[in-house]
Design goal:
Elements (H helix, E strand, L loop, with lengths): L4 H59 L6 H19 L6 H9 L3 H13 L4 H77 L14 H41 L4 H12 L5 E9 L6 E8 L5 H18 L5 H8 L3 E3 L22 E9 L2 E10 L7 H41 L2 E6 L4 E4 L1 H7 L15 E3 L10 H8 L5 E6 L4 E12 L5 E10 L3 H50 L6 H28 L8 E3 H18 L3 E6 L7 E3 H22 L8 E11 L2 E10 L6 H6 L7 E4 L2 E4 L2 H9 L3 E7 L3 E9 L1
Parallel strand pairs: 13-15
Antiparallel strand pairs: 1-2, 1-5, 3-4, 4-5, 6-7, 6-11, 8-9, 9-10, 10-11, 12-14, 15-16, 16-20, 17-18, 19-20
Organism: Candidatus Desulfobia pelagia
Pfam family, one: PAS_9
GO molecular function: ATP binding; protein histidine kinase activity
Amino acid sequence: MIFPIRKTVAATALLVALVLVSLLSLGVRQYLLFQKHEQVTTHTEKIIFQFAIIREHVTEALLEDKYERLAGVAGEMEELNVNLTSVLTSDYVADQYKINFASSFDISSIVLLLRKIQSGPVEPEGLRQLNREIRTLGERLMLFDRVLVNFAKKKLISFQNFVIGSLAIVLSSIIIMLLVAQRQLLSPLVQLWQQAWEVLEDKRSQLSLGRKKGVVADLALSFQQLQNSRDAISVTLVRYQQVATAVNRAQLAISRSFSRQKLFDGLCRALLENKDYCLVWIGLPEDDGKDVMPVAADGSTTMSRKECDSCMAVLLTEAEEKGLEFNPAAKVLQTLKPVVHKDILAGIPKGLLKGTPLMEGHAVCAALPIQREGKIYAVLSIYAIGQNAFSEKDMELLEGLGSDAGLALSALEEQDADRKEKELNRQILEASGAVVIYVDSQGDILDCNDVFARHVGVKGRDLAGEKWRNFFTPADPDAFTGQKDADILKRISQEKTVDLILRTTTSTLRMGCSFVPVMTEDGHVEKYGCIGRDAGSEQTREKGFSEVHSSRLAVLGELSAGIAHEISDLNNGIINYAQILFDNIRYQGQGQDEDDDRILDKIIDGGERIASIVRPLIRYGREGDAAGEFLPVTTVLEDTVTLVGYYFSSQGILLQVEMEENLPAVPVKAQQMQKVFFDLLFNGRQALNKRYSGKDPNKKILVGGKYVVEGDRRALELSFEDRGDGMNPEEVKQVFDSSYATQKLHNGVKHGLAGSRQIVESHGGSLGVESKPGESTRVVVRFPL
């Protein structure tokens, strides 16, 4: 029978308390018994001593015949009688001893006899009787004393025997209790302690106590549960560490990648550092955004490339056949969140995956978006064998990895865009013949373009460290005399342009150069960028600009015209089919549904809107014959506003058109006049973007058309007004100067109006500019009627 430890301990404590109380009471009892014995013994000794004195007094009185002294002896005898009475009344003396002792002598008779002898006459018989009584009393007192002592000894000895027996019983009980405790508690605890150490030293896997009930068994079970929890946590930590190591390797691979494909390949290979992962692949979103197209895949070291490709083919085929439920990557595109599928291989025949880690038919798949600021660049899919893979902590690490990869892809996109933009700028500068150099604040050349290198006959990399003044001299020979390069650069960077002479391998070129300082964050000049153009021939420069501008417009025209024709063909089909469907529904008497009518109306209206946008692209997309197509100038203006309307609105610019009705039709060459309107509108856009970086109520261009009469002259007036920074009178004069043809302003090229005025004047019109510095600029185009 197994007693609960709590009850056993409680019973033991109670029993020990009772034993201690009993022992204490026995000790007190023995102490009181001993005290009583001492009191009685002391009292009897006093009585015997007192009797000895009395007997001595009696003997002296009788021997000396001084019988008068016996009167004092009588008083002493009375006192002795009182003391004997006090002894006999003690509870310590047994009643049988009291009765026997009291009946063995009579002290009162001795007192009377003493008084009789003292009063006389003295008789021998009386003396003999007195002597006999005294001797008897002495014997009785001695006997009484021995009886009391023996009685006390017996009582003490019997009580001590009882105490010893009780102690023996208590000791036996304690031994029994210890044995019970040994069996119930100590032995199981020692066994538990030994097995626990063996478990900690990995000598045994789990605890195995013989008993299944009781507190110790519960303690062993709790310890086993703690051990199991520790093992589970250890396994989880090991798995988490493996994931963290793989993620760190992947982040390192991302940081070392300089292209998208290398990033994907490195990411797949690095994640396979985790032995729990057997297959990793990355897919790009398809055009419809419903699924992904794999672009990189890798398998564990136990898989060959062929086996990896085979697994990919099986998984993708199953996903396509079973739908979205078995396509975590497609789910990611829909939810924009990670997706974990616990049994991705369900229903796939094992034979298809033979020889691969997936052949057991059990795997978990996690698909994560590689995204940045809501844009999904790709989807990462990871397959693991263990059912406990992809815990919440694991997914947090992998989500962070997806964000890091998205950031890297975003940076690569930006770098690619910057590279393309730089290449485009380089090509434009190459085509324009401009020289570009970069110099530090002390005048040492840092870099240059190929045009400059060809002019000076030195390779670009060999020019680094050369002084810029070794190649450039001022048009005025004394302009730089006695000045340091740093001071010269600081001064000429504050000027719009400066004329310099470039010494080439064969001759010299007069260059119009602009120096632009590049500042550091603390406001210091890091370097200067210089762009120079041949200032020797304005016609050559204007022709170069016109060729570049015309070539870009031609390319734009070819592309937009081709695209416009394609859109127009498709749009015509949409409108025609929608109209046929609309007519059929009405003809069949099913046109009572207002929702259907409204939807069809929206389709037709949308198609007509597309047609209205595409029509100008087709009209102005390609060059016509030498004469060109003639259209009313108001039609050309309306088409131009339609073409640039969306582009301007995306930059927060409002095109506010206010045209009078029934304006006269002034025929113009459509393509030429459209270029004029393009230049005017884009100049206004640049002025507004320069003044207003974001949205603003004043960020708008007012386009007007009206019929004007001045005296006997009539004209059609078109106006373009922007609320930009405006121009001062000197700048207004320069806009019609051909040397003002191009000027780099922020994000675009501001066009001069020399060419525009020439086109307008060729149509018999005029072009004028009105500007208020800091307020607005208004361009007026008039055609006489």
